[in-house]
Amino acid sequence: MTLLQMIDQIGIGKYAQNLVDIDETHAVAPESLTGASFYLLQLGVGIEAKISQMTQEIDAYRRVLSRFASGVTVVTAYRGQRADGVTVSAFSAVSLEPPLVLVCIGEESDCYELLARSEQFGINVLSAEQGPLALAFSQVGDAKTQALRIFPNLWIDESVPVLANCVAHLVCRHYAVHAGGDHRIVVGEVIDLRLHDLQAEPLLYFASKFRRLTPA
Ligand SMILES: Cc1cc2nc3c(=O)[nH]c(=O)nc-3n(C[C@H](O)[C@H](O)[C@H](O)COP(=O)(O)O)c2cc1C
């Protein structure tokens, strides 16, 4: 077996090849591994182990966070004449005086720039029946436009776009944007709000699935 085959078999070929140019013409038998090749092999195995450990840590982080049950919102703003929105579960009240709320938006989200730039944006609290709508607003670009086609009479026109049949909505004035790793924390000052239906049940999100309330 050549060194290259050995490295490939262990699954570190792509990392090792980035470090030195190893090919069949320079292949060596395992018994003739030099100190440098052996070091390289160990380094490759080390990198592989580190990546695997990081992946496991991220999975564990996601799994634990998913055990925090939340409601589901769609954060909306006008993009020119057109209403746009993005599904967001990372919503929280911040302050009563002044009345501030926050949403955490991925910096790669198309809607991030829109929300960061908009003077006003809406936060729509979804009802238990609006799971399909939450999924549609989590699509990107044309897929989102397509996915939203099946929902007739979706919007109520106000100073911000509001979703019909949601439980409640808040109208926020841009207050601040803070750094938050790969997300941005967008803070809004609530300048208007409406409870659409006191009896309506909220949509919940827990362990990567939509849920409904049941009495504890
Ligand atoms: C239930 C649910 C909750 C979500 N919560 C958030 C969130 O809190 N923040 C966020 O940035 N994205 C969240 N997303 C993902 C965005 O909706 C998704 O990235 C969307 O594609 C972004 O669309 P845009 O690129 O048009 O803005 C969530 C998605 C789902 C289905």
Question: Layout of SSEs?
Answer:
Elements: H1 3-10, H2 13-19, H3 35-65, E1 70-71, E2 73-79, E3 82-88, E4 91-95, E5 100-106, H4 110-117, E6 120-125, H5 131-136, H6 141-148, E7 155-157, E8 161-163, E9 168-180, E10 183-195, E11 204-206, E12 209-211
Antiparallel strand pairs: 1-11, 2-3, 2-6, 4-5, 5-10, 6-9, 7-8, 9-10, 11-12
Helix pairs in contact: 2-3
The site of flavin mononucleotide (FMN) has 20 residues, from β3, β5, α4 and α5.
Main features:
216 residues, Pnp Oxidase, Chain A, seven-stranded antiparallel sheet, three-stranded antiparallel sheet, binds flavin mononucleotide, single chain
Description:
It contains six helices and twelve strands. With 216 residues, it is of the alpha+beta class. It folds into two domains: 3-65, no CATH class; 70-211, Electron Transport, Fmn-binding Protein, Chain A (Pnp Oxidase, Chain A, Roll). Strand 7 (155-157) and strand 8 (161-163) form a beta hairpin. The strands form three sheets. The chain has a seven-stranded antiparallel sheet. It has a three-stranded antiparallel sheet with strand order 1-11-12, with no helix packed on it. The protein binds flavin mononucleotide. The site of flavin mononucleotide has 20 residues, from strand 3, strand 5, helix 4 and helix 5. Flavin mononucleotide binds at residues 72, 86-90, 104-106, 109-111, 134-135, 138-140, 144, 183, 205.
